[in-house]
Amino acid sequence: MAIDTATAPASAAGRSEKAPKRGRRPSSLLTVLTWILAIGFFSPVIWMVMTSFKQESAAASNPPTFFFEPTLDQYRAVLEAGAGSYFLNSLIATGVSTLLVIVLAVPASYALSIRPVKKTQDVLFFFISTKMLPVVAVIMPIYVIAGQLKVLDNIWTLVVLYTAMNLPIAIWMMRSFFEEVPGEVLEAAQMDGAGLLKTMRTILMPMVAPGLAATALICVIFAWNEFFFALNLTAAKAATTPVFLVSQMTSEGLFLAKLSAASVLASLPVVLAGWIAQKQLVRGLSMGAVK
Amino acid sequence: MSTLVEKQQLKRHEQRQDRDRAKAAKAEGWRRRGPLLPALIFTIIVTQLPFLFTLWYSLQNWNLLRPDGDAFVGLRNYIDIFADSTFRQAALNSIIFTLGCVFAAMVLGIVFALLLDRNFKGRGFVRTLLITPFLIMPVASAVLWSVSMLNPSYGLFNWILGLFGIPAVDWTSSFPVISILMALVWQWTPFMMLLVLAGLQAQPKDVLEAAQMDGAGWWKTFVSITLPQLRRYIELGVLLGAIYVVNTFDQIYLMTAGGPGTASANLPFYIYQRAFLGFDIGQAAAMGVIVVIATIIIATFALRLIFRSFDVKD
What we know:
Largest sheet of chain B: 2 strands, antiparallel
Shape of chain B: flat
Strand content of chain A: under 5%
Helix content of chain B: over 70%
Number of domains of chain A: 2
CATH superfamily of the largest domain in chain B: MetI-like
Structural class of chain B: mainly alpha
Strand order of the largest sheet of chain B: 1-2
Oligomer: heterodimer
Strand content of chain B: under 5%
CATH class of the largest domain in chain B: Mainly Alpha
Number of helices of chain A: 15
Number of strands of chain A: 0
Helix content of chain A: over 70%
C-alpha cells in the first residue's frame, strides 16, 4: 500500500507550481508508518528502561505492568552491589586501549597511505585478515600464556587484547581519512621545509581530526561492549561491566528490575556517545569506506 | 691510455653512485616502514603467536581433568572432530545464524533506510531511535530478549501474542535458534540501515527525477536504478556484518547456553564449551584450527570483494 501511494508524486509533478508540496498526503501516511515502525523497533529499549524503574513484583508480572510508581531502588541496589569497581575496570580497559590504538594506528596508516610502503596491499590484507580469524581459536593459548605470566585477572591483559582487537579497524579507517588529504597540501608543506613531525602536527592532524574522533568512537564501542575475553580471562579483580551484568543474572536468582537497571547503566555510556556522534558512526562502521 | 684510466674512474664513480643510490633507497624504504612497524609487530605478537600455540595444542591429547598430562597424538584430534556430529551441528548453526541474521537485518535495514531517506518531521529523532539497538551492550540486549521479551510466563512477546489469542510459547527452549536470531537481527539491523542510508544519500537525485518524469513507478525505479546503485553498499554491509556475526558468542551464552542440548550452539560457543567447561584443550584447539582454515578459504573470496569496495590501490 505504501508503495502505491508513493507513486502519486510522479503524476502530481505535472502541476509544476505545487512542486515543493507535491504528494503531501501520501508522504504523511508514510511518515506515520515510519514512526510506528521506529517506535516498535525501539520498544524493547523503552521496556528495559521502564522495568528498571519498577519494583521486582511489578517487573515480572503477567499481564505486564504498564502503570506504576517509578522508583530508584533498583539503581541504588545495583550501585550497592559494587557496580562501581566493574565500571572503573571497563573505563580503564576502554580508555587506555583506545589511546594505544590511536598511537599505533596513526603512524601505521600514514605509512599505508601518504608515504606508502612497498607492499601496502599485502599489509592491509594482513590487518583485516586478523579481524576475520575467530577469537575462540586463540583463547586457549592466551589463557595458558597469561596464566604462566601471572597476568590472569589483570586489567592490563584486557588492555593489550582490546588494542589488538581494534587496531586493524582503526588502521583501515585512519588510512581512508589520510587518503583524502590532497597531495598539494603536503607538497606545499615540504617546500616550506616543514619536517615530518611538524607536517603531522600542523597540517595532517587538524585535517583528519574528525576521522580520529570517528575511529576513537568505534574503538570505544567495541571495547566497552566486549564480553568474551573478559569472561574467560578475568575474575573478581579485573572483571568489566558485561561480566558484572552476567554475575547479576546467575549468582542470586533472577531479579529482573535490578537486572534492567544494571543493563541501562552498562549501556548508557556507549548509547550516549553513539547518539552524539551519529555522523561519525556510519563512516566508522564501514571502516572508512562509506562517507 | 688516459682514456682507459678515465673510463675506469668513471666506472668506479658510477658504481659508487649506484651504491649510494641503493643505500638511499634502502634508507628511504626503512623511513617509510618505520611508522608501520610498531603496529605490525604488536599485531603479529598478539594475534599470530597464540595461533602457533593453538596449532601445537591441537596435536596433543591434553585434557586438564586427566592427570596423566599431555601426549603427542598427531592428527587424532582432527579425525575425532570429523566423527563428531555435534561439531557438524555447530558448524551448520554458525551458517544459519550468520546468513539468517545478515539477510534479515539487510532486508529490514533497506526498508528502514528507504523510509528515512525522505524529508519529514522528526527524521533525526527517528534515526536516533533506530540506531539505538546497535549501541546497547550485547550482553544487556541478550538479557533483555531472553527475559523481558521472551520469558514464557511474563515476557512481553507472549503477552502481545496472547492479545491475538495465540497461546504462550517457551521461546528460548522450543525455538532456540529463532530466539537468538531475533536478538541478533535486532542488534544488526541499524548497522545495515546506516550503510544503505549512506548509499541512498550518495545517489544522484537528477537520475531519479528523470526516471519519475519518464513515468517510471516507485517499484520500477527502485529495482532498476536504486538497487544497482546500492549494490556496493549492500555488499559491504553483508561482508562486514558476516565477519562480526559469525563470531557471535554473547547472545548464545546468555539466551540458551547453546541448548537445549547443543541445538543452538555455534562453533565459537561449542569450542568454548569444550575448552573451558570440558577442559579438553587438544580437541578445542583442533576445532579452532579447522575454523581458521575454513575462515581463510571464505575470506580469500571475501577480501577480493572488500578491496573492490574500498578501491585499494597498490
